[in-house]
Structures are given as structure tokens and as C-alpha cells.
Please model this.
Amino acid sequence: MKIDIKTREYTTVSEVSGPLMIVEGVEGVAYNEIVEIETPSGDSRRGQVLEVRGDLAVVQVFEGTSDLNTSTTKVRFTGGTAKLGVAPDMLGRVFNGTGQPIDGGPEIIPDKELDISGNPMNPSAREFPAEFIETGISTIDGMNTLVRGQKLPIFTGSGLPHNELAAQIARQAKVIGEETEFAVVFAAMGITHEEANYFMKDFERTGALERVTVFMNLADDPAIERIITPKMALTTAEYFAFELNMHVLVILTDLTNYCEALREISAARDEVPGRRGYPGYMYTDLATMYERAGRIIGKEGSITQMPILVMPQDDITHPIPDLTGYITEGQIVLSRDLNRKGIYPPVDVLPSLSRLMSGGIGEGQTREDHSGVSDQLYSAYAEGRDLRDLMAVVGEEALTERDRKFLNFADEFEKRFITQTGDEDRSIEETLNLGWELLSILPEVELKRVRAEHIPKYHPAYK
Amino acid sequence: MITGNIIKIAGPVIVGDGMKGTQMYEMVKVGNDNLIGEIIELEGDTATIQVYEETAGMKPGEPIESTGGPLSVELGPGIIGSIFDGIQRPLEKIKFLTGDYLQRGVSVPSLDKEKKWTFNPILTTGTEVMGGDIVGEVQETSAILQKIMIPPNVNGKLISIAPKGQYTVEEEVAEVETVNGIIKIPMMQKWPVRVGRPYKEKLDPDIPLVTGQRAQDTFFPVAKGGTSAMPGPFGSGKTVTQQQLAKWADADIIVYVGCGERGNEMTEVLKEFPELEDPKSGKPLMDRTVLIANTSNMPVAAREACVYTGITIAEYFRDMGYDVALMADSTSRWAEAMREISGRLEEMPGEEGYPAYLASRLAQFYERAGRITTVGTEDKTSSVTVVGAVSPPGGDLSEPVTQNTLRISKVFWALDSSLADKRHFPAIDWLQSYSLYVDSVEDWWNSHTGADWRETRDEAMALLQKESELQEIVQLVGPDALPDRERITLETTRMIREDFLQQNAYHEVDTYCPPIKQYQMLKTIMAYHVNAEAALDRGAASADIISIPVKDDIGRMKYLPESEFDVKVKEIQEAIVKQCSEV
Model:
């Protein structure tokens, strides 16, 4: 039975099922407490208390429950919630999904021990994010502008070049007029070795590795570990941003794997499922991660989040992208159709959105005509796309002269504005000028979204 | 006081024993950290409690203390301009105590108990008073004169009243002699959030809540004291639309409840509102606004409570005689919080895992809206308008929260993602949306704008309906195949859509459109339609009518500032007649 009350070690595991383990006869166990488990063969694993009921504790085991038994498995309750030791020299290092270094380097000597769940930021302590980040990608800078402290996910499908796009953004992201580069915290959840290698090589190739911290839970690592990987990453990011005054870009990939792990635990606990078997609290759970992005009044640093999320069957109404979209400040949506046409980056601007755009653009940030140009490009491209469908039915001849111009605009927009190469870093000036050039395909009376006084100033016809 | 012990902890729900004698919905202090919770189930000696703060680290055996009363809010000077969490703790004060991140177990009074307010007595001693009577006033902000009221259910004779001077909210300002003895009245009242404050009578809402938003005001108006639901998928502009209403609606007080939404949205309100001016009073918008923020990462049980906190505050100002508008963004998050708690209680789920009492809870909440006569000796008419955003999963309006909300609310603003994709904002789908208040607010509009307001609106609406039919034909045969008259119709409806319904929230003029301007703009567009049809009858070609130059001016009409609008719109209307007659 009980071995030692002081260290609170028990061998009273009564049930093991899926990722969960039930320990009986425990005393003084706290909700969410971290436990250390010694398997019958002497390996050590970690877990967390999900529920305490009298003298019974339900524990989720991060590294999987294979070869645990109900007779000799030892469970030690540590008395604390999950913590991560953080230090400035975590930059340039690679850790596994539970925060252990795996790059052969020395152990981290912690400067601080932080609770990985973090605490919610006080809404009145937040600074409203409004600093333009130039990513060098026209569809993002021009039409879905990213700002410092924003959470902007990439919604994508399997087989689309989301990794290339994320790596390009990590490489090119900068704030105009500032020298400081972003520190990148990269958390991989259940992605393949190949994908992970792609990012690692890209960081190495561009010499970015020294300003990157990597947490890696790969496809063959235990699924439940994924639950804590992003929390480790975000705790590190918070430390960098708000204690070391850095601007941090957090890339989380792939959120779908994270949610699957969440569902697995929920199912093992016999919880009442929400949509498609995902737990009812998934919104809250995702929010506690995404909301860790932001800025704080009076603090130098910032956390900008870019989660990557592979939509099952490209379905944007699937619970994972759906709940994410309700929490994040917009989304960048990649399109299979554009990808098939050979367009890179295949950003479908119509369903894409940046909610914090209006604060980060305009005079003093980008250019006075930015919001007008963006709105005009949107509505013109949307109209062009509608007309494409119409043309498929009635033929091009049945369209009016005006309609044909919109069709032409939509084609040119895809060819010249959306399309750019993987290392093309367009300045915001170039992006906006390109926008005007394309808009000049349309009759001037159609340009209602731009301010009248900007037309003579920027329209190519007046140059 | 009853003290029990924790026996089970699962997320925000804990179970305690030794709780016999406590009541349903009684507030309790849980654990060594004294976290605030509320009893939601009693069974024999055990009580199930939802805890409003993070429960990590809590252990069985820790104490639970009853407080003897239900979850209540403090009502008095100091509410306006503040930002509170879901159980009315002031977030600014918490920031001073715990820094940039919220920590649990913080105990801060909702209202500042130290601050002195200037109290102005109104009644004199000896007056017979009843609950709701105003004994004095406090100028709370530049825009709001807070009325100090006798609490509901107190009747008797005023035996003393404090002279004009500085008092804290707890200091007594009046005494009332009732049949049950003398009651001391401070400026602050307490009221349980789950109980609606009393009123004398509900009235028909027949005055529109003017929001300065053309799509809502002209086509789908909400009345003062009415209810409106606004469902839409993510990215369809729910939040911007809510914020536009909070900015420009002609209510005296705005209560903005951020329920399970983004932290930065609250920050945006905190940043923008102090800088914006109320078009009616010219005072900063923040001086009439109360914010309740329970963002998505804050504890889920407090999210369940936050809408009740918000509506109780709204009712309190209503009782003073003010028109109050409450924006709840989003009621779906509130329903999900109910679902999460219900799941942890292992209740039998109804549709999509929501508890079976979802519909009745939603109905109870929306029913607290209304235009009423207040309690008290003197009848005051005032209102609480509720606008609830709904976030249907996947934009699917058949889901339980949307459907149950539509059964109660009288206005439906359907936000549509395909309109949002085209940057048609506000993305209110004009064919799906409806308002049951059009008839009741008709008189107001006819007398405040023009006698033919209703007629003009209905004609425009009919044209939009006609357009959707024509579009189906166009999809099949192309626009060229349409007869001239139909082409003119399509041109007019394009104007209604682009030049009237679309409104730019970020444009300094267009963000707010006064009623008379809305009326004149729509009149102008309809005048184009009539004149164009007349020209067609005279034998002019539709292509020529469609390309008359005045159309440009019609398109830029919305950007005309109020000061020039009257003159310019006359010119445009004259130009329409002239140019149509010349083609």
C-alpha cells in the first residue's frame, strides 16, 4: 500500500484506461497537480491530476500508459502544478514536447520557474496591438495586415504549402524602422520528422536558429504530451516578451493534432461530447492558449501568434477551425484551387481576415490610401470571382464590357498580386502600388471604396 | 454560517459535504484561498458548487464557507466608466493588486468604498416614500447624473436626509421609518443578479433605438426596450457591429458585456470610447458606458454569471428613468458555459450537449429587457434594450442557441459571411433579417423624418426582394437578356446595396448617419428609380439612363458631412430629375 506519506508515493493504481490512470487511497492530492510515475520496468513518466474525488485521483499520463500495471506502478505526487524552468539561454535550443533539451546541449539552469498554464491577462492591462508587421507578402501586408501582439492563424489543407508560408513569414517579418528581429518560439505538435526537418533546416540556412526556441512533439511521440507542448512554448514566449522585453513570434503547428489529443482524453473520461466528439470545453481550452498573445501596457515586448491548422477535408466549419476563428483575430486561409493553378502563396483573400488591421495601417504606419486600396481590391476581386461563375454558365459574350474588365482584373490579381516567390520580400509601398496598378484595369467610376482625393495622387493614370 | 469540506474537484465544479442548511444559488467561499463560488445543486448533506476562479492546486478537505446570501452586485456611484469582471470585480483595481495577470482569490470590493461623492438631496424629511423614489442625486460622470433611490420593497416615511455634502457609498444618506422599523439608506444598494429588479408595468416599445446605422435603423429597426439577436459566423463582423451600436445608439447608458470573447476587443473599447464623443450629448462615450469583461480565457463559471451581472446593472439605471442598451457579445459563449457546467454535473444533455434548460434560461434573460414604468411614487418611463450576438458553430443557424434565441427576440440581424467576404459591411443579409418593430416605430419615423418614410422603406425593400428573383434569371441567361425595365431595377438595387446599406465604420462621417440623412439618402435613390423608369417610358435607352453622371454623386452621398448634406442632397435630387429628363 502506501510506501511513504511524506513523499506521497503510492502503488495503489486501480485502473488504467486509455491515457488515464486511477489511483486510490490518496491523501491531500491537489487538482491539476503534477505526478511522477515509475513504470514496472523503472522508466519515469509524468502525468497530471484531472479530477480528485475523496481518496481517488484521476491522472492523465503524458507519455502514454503502455506497460503500466495495477500492482507495481509507483506514483508520486509532487505537490505542485506543471512548471517550466525558463532562462535567457533557451534561445537557440531544441526541447522535446515536455521541455527536456534534445539537442545534446547542456541542461537549462532556470532563471525562474513558471506555471505553464499561465494566468489570464487582465483585460485592462492589455495594450491594443497596432504596430504594423511587414511580412513582405502582398496578400497579408496589403489585405490582411498582421500587427504586433496579434494572433493570426493559417487555415490550410493537407498538401498545401503552409509550412513554406510560415517559414517565409518567420524569415521576413519585421517592423519598419526597427532593427530588432523577432525571436521565434516554435512548437510542433504531432507533425512528421520531415516537416520538422523542413523548419529546422530553414532556420539553420537563414542563420535564424540562434533566435529560435523549438519545442518538438512529433507524430511518433505520445499524443497526450501534445496537451502541454504549446503551453510550454507560450510560457517561454511570455518570459521572453514580458521579462526580457523581446518581440516574439510563436508558431504553433499543427493545432488539429492538439485538438485530437484533447478529444482522446475527453473520450477516455466518458465526458458528454460536443460537436463531432470534441469536448464541450474545447473553446475555453483553445482560448487559454490563443489569448496568451498580446501586448501589455508599459512593457516593451510582445507575443504575436501564428498557429497553423490543417482543416480536415478543407472544411472551415469543422469545430477546430470554427472555434479557432471565433477566438483569433482573423485568419489566413489557403486555397486548394489556387494551389492547383500553381499560385504561391495560395492565399484566398476572400475568407481571410485580419481584425486588427485598421489599427495598424494608414498614415504614419503604412500609407494613407491603404484601407481604401484594400477594400477596393476585395470588392473588385469578389465581383470578378462571381462573374467567373456566371461566365461559366452564360459564356463570355453575354457579359457586358464592364463585367469583362472585372474578370480580367480577377485574373491579373491572382497572377500578379497573390503570386510571389518563396523568397520575394515585397515592401508595403510596392504592394500598394501594385494594387493601384491592378485597379487601373477597372473604370475609374467603379473605384468607390478609395477616397476620391487619393485617386489623383496614386492612380497610375495620373502619373 | 455553515462550514463544509471539499470532497471532489473537477475543473470549475467542486462538491462539498457538511453543507446542510445552505441554499440554492448561495454564494460560498471555497478552499484556503477563499475563491468565490455559487451553489448550483444540493443533495442531502452535499452541495455542488461552481467556482468563479481557477481551481488548480485545490485539495479535498479544504474548507467551504457559506456567506448567507446569493451572488449580488453592488449598485451605486462608481459603476459608470469602469471595467468589471463577470462577478463585478473592478479589473483596474485588481491590476494594482496582482499586476498584469489575473490571480485568484483576490478580494476587492466592486465599488470604491473610500471615494467621496457629492450628494445632492432632493426630498425633504417627512415625505412618504416608496421603493424607487429618488432621494438625491450624484453627478457621477460628465454625462450621467446618478439618482439615489430608495431600494425596492422599502415603504415608509423619510425621517432624515443628509444635507448636500461629500459621502462614501456606504455612508447613510437617508432614514426611512417603515412598519418593520427604521431602515438606513446608503447610496449603495445590493441586488441578487439572478432576480430581475421590479417595475410597475411593461409598455409597448414604440420609440426606435436610433443607432445611426442605416441597415438597422431604416430596414430592421430595434425599439427602445426591444430585443435583437445577431447571429453570424466568425469574421462576419458581429463585434464591429456591436461596437458601432455601443458607440452611436441613442441610449443614455450602455452596458457592454464581453462574454467569453477576445481580450483585445475590450482593450479596443477602453482605448476608443474615451476619445469618441456621444453625438447627442457631446460628452466622451466612456462617460455613459459600463464594461463587463469575462474574456474567453477567464474562468468559465464567471462567464455564466457575467450576463446576469450586466443586466442587473442595466436594470438599476433603468429604474432611475434612463434608457439603457445592453450589448452581449456573445450569448453563445454564455450558453456554452452553461453546457460546460452542466456536463460536469453529469446532467442528461439536450440538443448538441446543451442542457435541457437552455431555452428557458435564454428566455428569462431576454425577458428582462423592456420599456417600463418604474416603481415609485412618480411614474418614470424607461427601458432596457438587449442586443445579443450569437456565434453559431460553422455559421449554421439551425443550432440550438440561435433557434432558441430567435423564438424570443423580436429583431433578427442575420450576418452573412459571403457579404463579409465581399467587404459588404455591415454584413446584414437584407433578405433573411427581419424586425417586428417596423409597425410600432413607423409613427416616430414618419414624424421625425418624412411622412412617407414607411412607404419609401417598403418600396426599397420590395425592390431588393425583386432583385433576388432577377439575379436567379441573370445566373441562367446573363444580364444582357433582361428587359430594360428590369435592368433599371437592378441598377437601383445595386445603389441601395452599395450606396445605402454598406456603411463604413472606420470613416469619420459615415460611421454615424443621423435619421434625417438616412431618409434623404433613400429618398434620393428611390427618386432615381422613379425618374429612370419615367425616362424609359419616354423611350430612352437603359444603357444611357444607367450611365448618367449624377450616379457618382449618389455613391458619395454617404460621405457628405451633416453641415453640407441638406444643400448637396437637394442638388443631387435636382440633377437626377434633370439628367433623367435629358437622356
